[in-house]
Structure of Heparan sulfate glucosamine 3-O-sulfotransferase 1:
Amino acid sequence: MGAQKGGTTALHSYLMLHPQLNPPRKKELHIFDIDRNFNSWPNQLKVAFRVPKQPILKKQHESISFESTPSYIASTLACERMSTFLSPWTVYVLILRDPVKRLWSEYNMKARRIQNQDTTLQSLFDHADDLAVCWTPTENDDDAVDGAKSKDSSGDSVPPAEKMRREHCQEALDKHLDGSRVKASQVSRRMVNLKFAMDFKRKCVDTAKLGASIEESRECARKLGVLRETLPDIRQDIIQETKSLQPCVDMAAGKQFSEAKVPVSALPWTAREQECQGKLKTRICPQCVREADSEGCVAKCFSASNGTAQELAIQMGCTPPDVGPYPSHKLRSPSACSGDLCTCYPKAVNMADISKNFLWRGLYYPQVQQCLRYIPRSQLLIVDNDDLRRDPASVLGKITNELGLRDAPYGGPGFTYADASNEFSRKYPEFASTTGWSEDGSSSVPMPEDIELMLRSFYATPNKMLFDLIGKKFDHWL
Ligand SMILES: Nc1ncnc2c1ncn2[C@@H]1O[C@H](COP(=O)(O)OS(=O)(=O)O)[C@@H](OP(=O)(O)O)[C@H]1O
């Protein structure tokens, strides 16, 4: 269910290799976050996702369907819908990534898309003569465009001459666009490029050649809505979004930390860590308070206490995640999101232009908080991108174990990520060009220091709030 740029594709690729896991026909079905898709349920789900009609005990499953849509976690609707419609045995996996790295990865994906568009447009210019067949005016331009819109562009309603012209145009596009596509879209590359060529011809090309200059054509294409995305001014976007989000973050954090000061048990772990340690030491291991080697002493004393230390820690609300079960996060009422960081959501989210959501996407605290209103923490497996990269066998083992599946084929000799990614490219050959995705997208472009500083400072507090909420800490994010 996310996060976007969190490593969902790598995870999806690994899961595909498990013999008991059925991958969907495409990655990112967007069933639960896009109204149009959701409203077409149950047909789409039945066909594409094959959710069991009856809840079945997970251990009895011969095989299980899965899907990965990275935007679910950032949607305010997806978790509620999933909890209502999916089997209660569903395991939800959230792969998180240091939000600073996540943002940089998203920005670079966007940059690749823009670059792809420009390369495509340039190719159209460079090969204008060969592509003239696409621009030649015909009597039935409107039919051609309408025909190109439908999935079957060779439909019977298209006259034979037009059909042939379009085939020649398609051939020329295939030859010269060389795998690039004019825009990121779920529709096949051939269709997108053909439709673009048809629309472009109709609206931007007056003569048998392309528009007078590439700038003019780019402008026209932009008006057509084909070159919709522009490269964001990332510094400005971050500054603007920070202005809008920071007050909510401060308010939520101030509220959380000040409320928490009263009884120790109400304090979030990050804030009460020192206080808790002091109290536990005094109550359970008074001898350690007097000893110089207090760290080693406390550890020994705790393990010798036969669980008493742990029990007491839980009672005091002082349980760090690695000591024992973390007290589950209790939401006060169904509207608990208001008053917390969730009040930031309307300020942050501008669905019409995703570039305005760079910061929000990595603001995991309100997203997870919102989701936990519907999905129990025990059903939500949270993993870190770095762990998947470093030790995939362990991460995947946890997931498959949670699902009650047979041993995962991920730890065997000679197993590499390439096995998984090759399988992914075989099943989803268009994914990278459709989305601008790349296996190592942002690593070749170092993040400017000033951007990193702005981001680290913005995310420091919400990250701590998240750690507290989920009972897990990713130290390297701070
Ligand atoms: N094996 C493995 N483990 C963990 N992470 C990996 C792995 N392989 C690739 N990647 C990195 O994942 C980043 C893309 O994330 P997503 O696949 O979630 O992107 S998307 O939301 O589907 O567009 C993308 O990040 P950037 O390279 O920083 O852009 C990939 O490098």
